[in-house]
């Protein structure tokens, strides 16, 4: 099923017309299939986060078009686009309302894209459903549903945020280095959970990562950004068989820049 | 004893205003100075209507509705025109000064001998000095109960989440601008309602009665928090009410100690400064104690 996400010649410039003008995205052309799990890599300032945020509507594109599920969303405000998109952020604090409980956070997420009214936010049936969903995360949080989000660890929060992003099936799942702030073991768990959710629900997914191993290991497609452009786009067998050395090689070829190995790994 | 009763009744009637300040300051994280204009707005509207012979309860409710309008203006300036919240509030407050004068036609309106809400209840045969306490308690209880229920609804959730985490709220499809406008409207409605009741209890509305409203509101909120700590939402609202009463008692005490009434605002500011410092001071002392 092609055409779940279409990006046509998208440009984004910050502080245009000032001395600080910064042309971050310089003509992104991209099409994702419905079943694509795309890992996104690139150095600092390559435009990875800007690309995801532009798809999400945090920034508006100066030029070009963005279509999600055949709907042109180029000028749609962020909160309306949210109907189609689930997101998890790098900072575990950003994905949830910390002074609200786990179940209240899930209730807000469940209403994403729907009209909210003066009905009670949580019914007994809702509570039961959220509890079941949280139990599937296997973190033992199902008995702490009325605990404030702020009391959870970073990994627990990211797991709940992931659940919130997918509890209403989104057309697009955007993960902006969602494991970068976690310790290696927790990061591993959250990535495992990501893989499980994406596979089960067959979600079109973008995952920015700083970790090249993860970029190669996860997903069926890999794109590399450099200087606001997509310089590498590996699919299918090509992606499956790619190695770290291949990626380095590709980067050099496409960006015509010398690159220290760790610039990509650690930046 | 009389002073105590007056302090409690004043505390209860002003508590509605403090709850309004709590909504913007603690839930939306905005310092909304509209309060300084919406409080006398409620007083001006209810008093003018009562003087013209309108029913006191209807007049008071209309005053509450006028606060919604004041909040709407501030909310739109803040969200649609991207003027910082503080400035938006100052703009509305300044404009309201003229509007309040227009509404009253003069700098003050006397309500002596008029059928105020309090006079209505006096007709029922209650002891006159207890009526303000009774009405204050009823009003505060109703408002807290409604807010308690409201913050459990879907719309209540997004108001809380917007104040808590705007990025997350938008990512979850919340129109955060709308949520902020709504919050500021509800807050100013309560503040205008409080102004209406206070004017009727005092027996007059005055153009300058809004001066210092925000500081009194913040003092009530923080006194409540410092004294009673971190609690669930409904209990926190009750603490705001207690904070408002405690604040009135402190003021009553100051007057009782023969303090010059002209110095009262200075006292209020000092009280607020002290209670605002208290949490960080407590933290420091705790750390020092642990270090030993």
Q: What order do the helices and strands come in, and which of them pair?
A:
The complex is a heterodimer of chains A (267) and B (292).
Chain A: E1 5-14, E2 22-32, E3 37-42, H1 48-56, E4 63-68, E5 71-72, H2 78-81, E6 85-88, H3 102-110, H4 124-135, H5 154-166, E7 172-176, H6 184-201, E8 204-208, H7 212-217, E9 221-226, E10 229-235, H8 236-241, H9 244-255, H10 261-266
Parallel strand pairs in A: 3-8, 3-9, 6-7, 7-8
Antiparallel strand pairs in A: 1-2, 1-4, 4-5, 9-10
Helix pairs in contact in A: 3-5, 5-6
Chain B: H1 2-27, H2 35-51, H3 56-79, H4 85-104, E1 108-110, H5 117-122, H6 131-150, H7 154-164, H8 166-171, H9 176-202, E2 204-206, H10 213-228, H11 233-256, H12 264-291
Antiparallel strand pairs in B: 1-2
Helix pairs in contact in B: 1-6, 1-9, 1-10, 1-11, 2-3, 2-4, 2-9, 3-4, 3-9, 6-11, 7-9, 10-11, 10-12
């Amino acid at each position: 099923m092609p055409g779940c996400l279409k990006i046509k010649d998208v440009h984004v410039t910050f502080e245009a017309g000032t001395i600080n003008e910064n042309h971050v995205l310089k003509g992104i052309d991209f099409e994702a299939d419905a079943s694509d799990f795309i890992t996104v890599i690139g150095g600092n300032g390559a435009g990875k986060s800007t690309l995801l945020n532009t798809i999400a509507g945090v920034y508006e594109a100066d030029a070009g078009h963005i279509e999600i599920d055949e709907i042109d969303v180029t000028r749609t405000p962020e909160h309306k686009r949210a109907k189609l998109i689930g997101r998890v952020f790098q900072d575990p604090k950003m994905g949830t309302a910390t002074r609200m409980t786990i179940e209240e956070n899930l209730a807000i997420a469940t209403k994403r894209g729907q009209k909210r009214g003066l009905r009670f936010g949580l019914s007994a049936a809702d509570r039961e459903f959220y509890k079941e969903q949280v139990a599937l995360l296997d973190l033992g949080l199902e008995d702490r549903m009325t605990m404030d989000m702020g009391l959870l660890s970073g990994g627990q929060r990211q797991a709940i945020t992931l659940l919130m992003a997918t509890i209403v099936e989104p057309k697009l799942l955007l993960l902006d280095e969602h494991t970068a702030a976690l310790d290696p073991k927790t990061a591993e768990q959250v990535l495992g959970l990501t893989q499980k959710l994406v596979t089960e629900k067959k979600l079109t997914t973008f995952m920015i990562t700083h970790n090249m191993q993860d970029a190669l290991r996860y997903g069926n497609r890999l794109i590399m950004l450099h200087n606001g452009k997509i310089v590498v786009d590996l699919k299918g067998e090509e992606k499956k068989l790619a190695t770290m050395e291949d990626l380095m090689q590709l980067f050099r070829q496409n960006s015509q820049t010398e690159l220290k190995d760790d610039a990509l790994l650690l930046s | 004893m009389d002073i105590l009763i007056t302090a409690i009744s004043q505390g209860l009637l002003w508590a509605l205003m403090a709850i309004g300040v709590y909504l913007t300051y603690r839930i939306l994280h905005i310092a909304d100075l509209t309060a300084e204009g919406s409080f006398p707005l409620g007083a001006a509207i209810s008093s003018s209507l009562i003087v013209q012979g309108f029913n006191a309860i209807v007049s008071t409710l209309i005053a509450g509705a006028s606060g919604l309008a004041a909040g709407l203006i501030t909310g739109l300036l803040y969200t649609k025109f991207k003027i910082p919240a503080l400035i938006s509030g100052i703009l509305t407050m300044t404009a309201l000064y003229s509007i309040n004068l227009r509404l009253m036609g003069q700098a003050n309106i006397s309500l002596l001998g008029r059928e105020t809400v309090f006079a209505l209840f006096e007709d029922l045969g209650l002891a006159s000095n207890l009526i303000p306490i009774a009405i204050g308690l009823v009003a505060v209880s109703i408002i807290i109960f409604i807010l308690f229920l409201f913050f459990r609804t879907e719309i209540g959730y997004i108001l809380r989440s917007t104040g808590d985490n705007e990025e997350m709220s938008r990512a979850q499809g919340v129109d955060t601008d709308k949520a902020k406008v709504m919050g500021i409207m509800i807050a100013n409605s309560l503040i205008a309602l409080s102004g209406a009741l206070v004017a009727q209890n005092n027996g007059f509305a005055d153009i300058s009665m809004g001066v210092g409203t925000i500081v009194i509101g913040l003092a009530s909120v923080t006194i409540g928090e410092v004294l009673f700590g971190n609690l669930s939402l409904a209990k926190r609202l009750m603490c705001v009410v207690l904070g408002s009463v405690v604040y009135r008692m402190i003021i009553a005490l100051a007057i009782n100690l023969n303090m010059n009434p002209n110095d009262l605002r200075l006292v209020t500011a000092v009280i607020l400064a002290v209670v605002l410092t208290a949490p960080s001071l407590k933290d420091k002392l705790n750390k020092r104690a642990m270090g030993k």
